[in-house]
Specification:
Blueprint lengths: L2 E8 L8 E6 L12 H4 L10 H10 L6 E5 L9 H10 L3 E6 L4 H9 L5 E5 L7 H4 L8 H16 L4 E8 L6 H10 L6 E5 L16 H11 L6 E4 L2
Parallel strand pairs: 2-3, 3-4, 4-5, 5-6, 6-7, 7-8
Antiparallel strand pairs: 1-2
Helix pairs in contact: 4-6, 7-8
């Protein structure tokens, strides 16, 4: 497993738990507003964390941490993800997965095997705008969108784990019609978070903007018509 980053302690990334976050290298999306550019591109300046270093840290922190969040990049691109999670769980940790939903088979297998306890899946945009928001060519994207749809269905129809959907809302990429389409797509979900965009040095393309707080509140109210548990993050 290629681990290119480690946040040793967070109270935000795994709801209700003190957790560490592992960032796996590589992603099949190129979302222009993504702030983990170096991790997505597996930048050579990043020194991978060895398995020995990772588990030495996790063993040392067993009395402090209760959860481990596996993020990226896109973790489900790594075939050895289940083996990594199994070892983490053997230390007594709960595991949260962050995913873009492009590998529904891996998501299904992790849930079916009882390897994850919580999943946060990104919904990049309405289906019509998904390719441009994911930074991919529209003429090559239909199979990927089909996979994302499958992952949405898996989470909506399973009852084994808690989950959330989330969208980073960007002025240049999202409008009211998109928020309505997304919320109808994931209608009945356990939770949906609208996250305010934040500019950083690590984004692929600078120049995007966050919506004012009042606009995000209005979008959240709109989405609650389909997903009553719609909440805001980052404002």
């Amino acid at each position: 497993m290629l681990v290119l980053g480690l946040n040793k302690t967070t109270l935000l990334d795994y709801p209700g738990h003190v957790a560490a976050v592992l960032f796996t290298g590589g992603c099949n999306f190129r979302c222009p507003y993504c702030h983990n550019r170096d991790i997505v591109l597996r930048d050579s300046s990043l020194v991978p964390l060895t398995t020995e270093e990772l588990f030495a840290f996790l063993k040392k922190r067993q009395t402090v941490l209760t959860g481990v969040c596996i993020s990226g990049g896109e973790p489900t691109l790594h075939p050895d993800l289940p083996d990594l999670i199994l070892r983490i769980r053997e230390l007594g940790y709960l595991v949260k997965l962050d995913t873009n939903g492009s590998n529904p088979q891996m998501l299904h297998d992790l849930i079916d095997a009882g390897l994850i306890d919580h999943c946060a899946m990104d919904i990049k945009n309405s289906p019509e705008k998904y390719a441009v928001t994911a930074g991919m060519r529209a003429d090559h994207f239909e199979p990927v969108l089909a996979a994302v749809r499958d992952s949405v269905g898996i989470l909506l129809h399973q009852r084994r784990i808690s989950y959330e959907f989330r969208t980073t809302v960007v002025q240049e990429l999202h409008d009211e019609a998109d928020m309505c389409a997304i919320s109808q797509w994931i209608a009945g979900a356990q939770a949906y978070f609208l996250q305010s965009y934040t500019e950083s040095d690590g984004v692929f393309h600078k120049g995007f903007h966050a919506y004012p707080a009042e606009t995000l509140h209005a979008y959240a109210a709109l989405c609650r018509q389909s997903v009553p548990n719609t909440l805001l993050r980052g404002i």
